[in-house]
Every structure is written in structure tokens, then in C-alpha cells.
Write a structure and sequence with these properties.
Elements: H1 15-22, H2 30-37, H3 40-52, H4 59-62, E1 74-78, H5 79-84, H6 88-103, H7 119-126, E2 141-146, E3 156-164, E4 167-180, E5 189-193, E6 205-208, H8 215-223, H9 226-232, E7 245-251, H10 254-257, E8 258-259, E9 269-270, E10 278-281, H11 286-296
Antiparallel strand pairs: 1-2, 1-10, 2-3, 3-4, 4-5, 5-6, 6-7, 7-10, 8-9
Protein name: ABC transporter ATP-binding protein
Biased composition (Polar residues): 50-66
Organism: Bifidobacterium biavatii DSM 23969
Length: 308
């Protein structure tokens, strides 16, 4: 494993936050109970099918490309924040998505009975950012900066974990250790290690796929004319209009996240196929956030926010 570069101030969370994250006496969470009720194969297939409907056309090729830290830098907001938001425009986007899923049979139809007929409740479960090793500190977002020194500064990044706008629960240097062939969405994923994180910290290992669309792809989409966007909107609702986003998992060790043993290498499989924490680019406005929800459920994108 490549040794992680040190970061000034690269410390665990403040005492109180760290205790919350690693508390061994925490009671089982609702998400743990929910997972025991759902058929793993069905849920995983639905998640992979749903996720594949909104990827850019050339994402399969880009997911195999070498790590480009520039694609990751900046602020990120958890999709969980969009699920739980009470912002009126987002509430409407979710309400219309719920109605669309109930009205048309789809891959989601198989899952709705497990979640009281609510697609929003399903995503709240699938995209939860807490886990068995971190039961009490939902991940509200990330701030990522490039590594500026160290032997392999271009092989990783400095990631700040936030549980609130001004609450940092950890900041560590992550280095790419290797890749697995079939991870989230069934696609190649990076396996990062943060050697500077304390032993037993849930942030020592990060598994993630490339952001999609990439910054370069997003720039091309942003340059499209309004006429072209409108002409393609219905057919391309699954591809266009999305904020750059990525799926990830995190844990204290590879063994906590992967099956196959220490020698599995690229052939290792995810231990939790149904867990899909997701980050969205933090530079998107409210309209972009609403359109993430709408595109996920194959609804036409909004050109402007609805009137209140």
C-alpha cells in the first residue's frame, strides 16, 4: 500500500463527534432492521438497474480510466440531504416522482411493498450515509482538495467528512490502493486507503466510482443550446441535466466492505450490494437538485423552478 501523505491538521473529529462515530454500544439503527426485511438480490438488481438509467452514454469507458483527482475536488452534498429536504420545490419533485412510480410498472415496483409504497422511503434506506461502524453521524457532505505533497500526490486527495455545514468529523489523505472490477452499479470502483485515520475509524477505507458525468462531460452538456436541450429532454431525461454525482461506501477496513479475502484483488465483491450512499456536486443550484430527483425517475426536467 502506498503511504498516505500527511495533511496539516489531519486529525480525527473533535472528541464528541469521534465518540458518536465509533461508539460500540450504539443500538441497532432503523436502516439495519430494514435491510433484514428486503431480498438482497432483488434490491441490488433494482439499484443497479435504476442507476444505469441515468449514466452518460460513455461512462462505461470513463469508469475504467486512471484516477483524475481534479474530477473530485470541491464541495459535495449528500443525496440523503435532498431526500430529507423540506424545500418546497424538492418536495414537489419527490411528490411527482412518487406518483409516476405508482402509476407505471418499473424495476422500482418490486421494491415499493417493502417501503410502504414510497419510492422516497426506498431511496432514504438505500442511500443512507450511516452504517454499523458509524450509527450516529450522517454524512452531510464532503470537501475535497488535491494532495500537494508526498510521493504520490496525484494518486489521491484530501477528503474532509462533514456531518453538518460547519461540523467536520474527520479529514484524511486518501491514496488509491487498487481497483475492483465489479463494484457499485456493477462497474469498476476505486479502493482508497487513509493510513492517517485512527485504527478502527470508519473512514480508513473508501470505495467509490468515478463522478458522472465527469467535469469535462458536464462542461459539454452546459454548452448545449436551449433548443437542443428541449428537443432531447424527454428521451434524454436519464442522461442530461444531472449534477455530477458518485456512489461510495466507507469502513474501517477492506474486510468490512469486501468479500473474497486479502488476496482477491480486483475480483473482490462488495459485501453490502444494497448500500448506495451518494454524493452530488455541491455547486448545483436548487433547480439542478430538483432535476436530479426527476431524472432518476425518468420525468422531464424542469427548465425553471415551479411557482410556489
Amino acid at each position: 500500500m502506498t503511504e498516505s501523505a500527511a495533511i496539516p491538521g489531519n486529525t480525527p473529529a473533535p472528541t464528541r463527534a469521534t465518540a458518536d462515530v465509533t461508539s460500540p454500544s450504539a443500538a441497532p439503527s432503523a436502516s439495519d432492521i430494514s435491510e433484514s426485511r428486503v431480498k438482497p438480490g432483488v434490491a441490488a438488481n433494482v439499484l443497479e438497474s435504476a442507476a444505469s438509467t441515468h449514466e452518460p452514454a460513455n461512462s462505461a469507458a470513463s469508469s475504467k480510466s486512471p484516477l483524475n483527482p481534479a474530477e473530485w475536488t470541491g464541495d459535495w452534498i449528500s443525496f440523503e440531504q435532498l431526500i430529507n429536504s423540506r424545500e418546497p420545490a424538492l418536495e414537489r419533485a419527490w411528490t411527482e416522482s412518487e406518483a409516476a412510480m405508482r402509476a407505471h410498472r418499473s424495476a422500482f415496483t418490486l421494491m415499493l411493498p417493502f417501503f410502504g409504497g414510497s419510492i422516497r422511503r426506498f431511496w432514504r434506506w438505500a442511500c443512507r450515509t450511516t452504517c454499523r461502524e458509524n450509527r450516529h453521524a450522517p454524512i452531510a457532505g464532503w470537501h475535497i482538495e488535491p494532495l500537494e505533497y508526498g510521493e504520490n500526490a496525484g494518486n489521491g486527495f484530501a477528503l474532509e467528512w462533514r456531518s453538518g455545514e460547519n461540523t467536520v468529523i474527520g479529514r484524511y489523505a486518501y491514496q488509491l490502493d487498487h481497483m475492483i472490477d465489479r463494484g457499485l452499479e456493477g462497474k469498476p470502483c476505486y479502493v482508497f486507503h487513509a493510513d492517517s485515520a485512527p485504527e478502527g475509524s470508519p473512514f480508513r477505507v473508501l470505495i467509490a466510482m468515478d463522478p458522472m458525468p465527469s467535469r469535462a462531460e458536464q462542461a459539454v452538456l452546459d454548452e448545449r443550446t436551449e433548443h437542443t436541450k428541449q428537443a432531447d429532454q424527454v428521451e434524454q431525461a436519464g442522461h442530461e441535466g444531472l449534477l455530477s454525482h458518485l456512489h461510495f461506501q466507507y469502513g474501517s477496513s477492506e474486510a468490512a466492505l469486501l468479500r473474497g479475502g486479502p488476496n482477491a484483488g480486483a475480483a473482490a465483491k462488495l459485501r453490502h450490494r444494497m448500500w448506495y450512499p451518494t454524493m452530488c456536486a455541491g455547486d448545483g443550484d436548487l433547480l439542478a437538485q430538483c432535476n436530479v430527483v426527476r431524472a432518476l425517475h425518468k420525468l422531464p426536467l424542469w427548465e425553471r423552478l415551479p411557482e410556489q
